[in-house]
What does this fold into?
Amino acid sequence: MSTTNSLTVEELGSAAQRDRRKRILDATYELASDGGFDAVQMRAVADRAEVALGTLYRYFPSKIHLLVSALAREFDRNEAMLKEMGPIPGGTAAERVIYIMKRTTRGLQGDPKLTEALTRAFMFADSSVAAEIHTVGMSLTTMLTHAMHSGQPTEHTEPTAEDIAIARVIGDVWLSALMAWVTGRSTAAETGAHLETAVGLLLRD
Amino acid sequence: MSTTNSLTVEELGSAAQRDRRKRILDATYELASDGGFDAVQMRAVADRAEVALGTLYRYFPSKIHLLVSALAREFDRNEAMLKEMGPIPGGTAAERVIYIMKRTTRGLQGDPKLTEALTRAFMFADSSVAAEIHTVGMSLTTMLTHAMHSGQPTEHTEPTAEDIAIARVIGDVWLSALMAWVTGRSTAAETGAHLETAVGLLLRD
DNA sequence: GGTCAATCTAGAACGTGTTCCTATGATGGA
DNA sequence: TCCATCATAGGAACACGTTCTAGATTGACC
It folds into this structure.
């Protein structure tokens, strides 16, 4: 269980295992991006990743785990990108938060099928996926509190309890709005407007 | 398509059809209450309701429709109960809203499996269930705006756009919190606390 | 009562997530 | 080098949502 590697933080395991894991997540990503939740069929993922079905299940114990893990990877990448971006534009916390949300939302809406697949999985997850879900939640909260203080004197202080509470509420609204959009119950414009209203209500400086 | 009936507003159809519909929803309710989402198996529902599988699908085109319809019926009943209850206790809008939310949440948490089944279905619904979802959403929004104004001079005026926006945000938070609770990712206490915080942030009179 | 259309029953059949089994490698220790 | 262990491939098998088919039943209208 350890030969010449342990380079990345990603996951433990041999290079071959890390490679399989990556191939599986890539295949998931492609299928989801192509045809959404329904197109991510376990046999299809296994085929495309060139692993056996049993191996796929050994790496990810369910379709939901698989998709939520893919989502977590996306969030990680998104977070890394944001870090490189420097200070977030906007004169008030509300403006900066809205900027970030719109940016992220636009990214998601640019790949609707993928977003549908990931959001669905997120919503359907049970406690066995709690760890992955928590990762995503923390990622989102961090992103939001960061936006609130970005470029401010308070930038490098810990977010207050109220900051975190507000971030969580915004996260909830965002998830609901995304859900409504993904399921075709509201348009992209409505989603954006609702989000903006919510941020306005919560962050009246 | 009309002999001696058309008594209730419930649904169109003969008495036998209304009866079947009720038996199906009752069976759904019982199975959900017993074993949650997974226990609501279409064959089991059909058996318990004493209808054929094909008939079940004729009444409800999918498991999700079935569960969301059951949820809508519960919300109707809840709304009727609230109407009979008279003015909602609490000196501020926030207090009244929290009162209502806690009351409803407590009701749901008293039957965790049922709540799990209904919430899951709600989250998994796509646009083909939009109508039912919209019903539930309106029901919730109405309940909340009503609570905000209950016993106030403004009681019988239309809720403002801001009222509705706030109600929607609270609804979003509630759904997320319920989701987290249902999937075992947070406790009942945490759910309540988060909700209370959110209401406090949104309704600082 | 007789007829027709709609509805219902019973159950087979199909698709996809999940589990399980066996044979075949890969790996690491003696 | 040889052995013990464990991961993988390949694919059958199973569970449950959904669809489909064939025949019985019902109810409206003559």
